[in-house]
Amino acid sequence: MSQVSEDTQPPRPSVGLGRTLTGVPGWVRREAAESWAAVRAAERRTVVVEALLCTLAAAFCLLPLLSAPPERLAPAVLEGVWAALIVPARRGRPVAAVVCASLLLVGANVWTVAVVPLIVLSATRRIAPPRRVWQAVGVACAAVGVLTVASALVHSEALPVELAGNAVSAVLLLLLPALAGTLLGRRRPLVSLLRERNAYLEQTRTLTAAAARTEERTRIAGEMHDLLGHRLSLISVHAGALELAAARQAPALVGQAELLRTTAGTAMGELREILGVLRHLDITGLTDGTGDERGTRADITALVTESRRTGSTVELDWSVPDTAEVGLHTRQAIHRVVREGLTNVLKHASGAPAKVEVKGTDKGIEVSVTNEAPRAADHSQGGSRSGLAGCQERISLLGGTFAAGALANGGFRMAAWLPTHGKPLEFAALEGAFAAPPPDTARLPSGGIGQGGARAPLSDEILTWPRVLGSGCVALLVVLPTVGFLVVLLTTAALR
Questions:
Q1: Which residues share a beta bridge with 403?
Q2: Which residues does 451 contact at the CB level (< 8 Å), separation at least 6?
Q3: 229-234: which pairs have CB atoms within 8 A and are 24 or more residues apart?
Q4: Beta partners for 412?
Q5: What are phi and psi of 14, to 5 degrees?
Q6: pLDDT band at residue 218, thresholds of 50, 70 and 90?
Q7: What is the rounded distance in angstroms from the CA atom of residue 215 to the CA atom of residue 238?
Q8: Which of the four pLDDT bands, split at 50, 70 and 90, describes residue 284?
Q9: What count of Cα atoms within 13 Å lies in the side-chain half-sphere of residue 453?
């Protein structure tokens, strides 16, 4: 806890800076210390951008003075430096920046006037609530009026003309930028709210789709249980009766009857496993563990032995080292590929010699099932290829490759390359729904989507795209007179 507290504490003011400002009034030292602490705590990118903006503002306000020095050069230079110092203040002290920027409207350096609306526009975006903006603008306009009267009395200038000119400047360079900044400031929470609502709706859509998918999986599981469970149970019972009858009347058929009974029992067990997977709601703790699909040498040998008991000639070539580390899902995929290949041989090329090859490579496992051309009398008419499609989908989800097709000699070959470790298969397609990446909460305001989930938008939060876009468009229209006034003013000053 102490570590967390240390990380969250704000940076302390520099002791060396406090000693340097000895003799300066206390509030000045506090402001300087807080400003320096804010600079140290800010991101490097922010510091670089602000330093660049200060440099550009100083260059724009001071360089024109070299070509056309004004009558009062010292005040003009001070005004340029003052304008450059106000630029970074708009972030931490926006109200003070608006008030201080108003002093530039009555100065001798006309080039600083171009910086004023930019400072006001940027500062008022950060002031909330809006009434504080107009309070700051009111104080700034009052300061312009007071300074105009004082300047006219000191320099013996026409007071009405000065008041009228500075009043126009205050309207165009203070009031209109403040209005545009207020509109943009209101647009920012609207955009954040729109992002939050979109994230909420996206999360709701994902959860709704996941719930519908779960309901459909449950329905399919029920149908499979009702239709297949009963049939498999009958097959198992009749196979047991057939085995007993064969033991008394035809001992040579006992092995075939026993194989039929055990196969029916294995199919029933696999059906129960699949039904459990379909009905399970939490996929994070499940594994693809249906039946005894271990994918080991003994497992594949058992599959080959079962095929040989049907009368087929099957050869096994296993060259995977026993010490090889192969993931569970890869081993299960090996079992599925070999089983599907041998099943296809029995269905479409009964009696044809077949060969099962399982080889280890540097980064994966190669599996293939190859059979020679079937006998003409038992030539298959083809199948639906649904088993091959299932193998291809399973292997592609694991990140492997799959190929199957006829050979030139009339045979057929299934081949697959599998990585040594892979993702869970039955749930890979569902991970996007149940384990979708959370929305980007870094850009959302507090109260958005977090560990507690997204909150529903309130009924009084009327949010439409015209409101979001309208604030920016109106703000652009508001600052157009300001831009025109600045262009005329600076053009006149340059021609002089």
A1: 415
A2: none
A3: 229/268, 229/271, 232/264, 232/267, 232/268, 232/271, 233/268
A4: 371, 406
A5: -70, 130
A6: confident
A7: 34
A8: very low
A9: 7
